[in-house]
Specification:
It is built from four helices and seven strands. It is α+β, with helices and mostly antiparallel strands. A four-stranded antiparallel sheet has the order 3-2-5-6, with no helix packed on it. It is rod-shaped and about 100 Å long.
Length: 143
């Protein structure tokens, strides 16, 4: 009877090892993607000094956190800002282990939207722009 118990225990161990191995091999992957849009569309987006493309654009990312973003389009003021990619609850331990074992995989999409302001030169007449520039110059001299 002792041999039978040892065989059962050995079988159980191999079963557990096999299941853990199968989860590791068959587990889905977790992908992280940022989807960037802007108003107006077609703006060039640079994230952490790497050009991503023109909006609307999607890009993969590895780490959650704060990113430096530069959004530019001709005729609009360049927008330099910081954007945050926050981790969802299923990315925190110990839930992340279960989420990574889902066979279909888990995709996280972080959405960023930026609104650009028109350049002053484009919204004013030449006279208004010149008058405003002269007023600002006088203010600077007075300081």
């Amino acid at each position: 009877m002792v041999r039978s118990d040892k065989r059962v225990r050995s079988y159980e161990r191999w079963l557990v090892v096999g299941l853990v191995g199968a989860v590791g091999v068959l587990g889905g992957c977790m992908s992280r993607r940022v989807s960037i849009t802007s108003e107006p569309a077609g703006a060039t987006v640079t994230v952490n000094d790497v050009e991503i493309g023109r909006t609307p654009v999607d890009a993969d990312f590895t780490y959650y956190g704060v990113y430096d973003v530069l959004v530019m389009k001709e005729g609009f003021e360049p927008l330099r800002t910081k954007a945050k990619a926050r981790a969802p609850l299923y990315e925190f331990p110990p839930v992340d282990l279960a989420a990574s074992a889902v066979p279909t995989g888990v995709e996280t999409v972080v959405k960023w939207h930026f609104t650009l302001s028109p350049m002053l030169e484009r919204t004013q007449t030449a006279e208004e722009f010149e008058r405003g520039m002269m007023e600002r110059a006088r203010e600077l001299r007075g300081k």
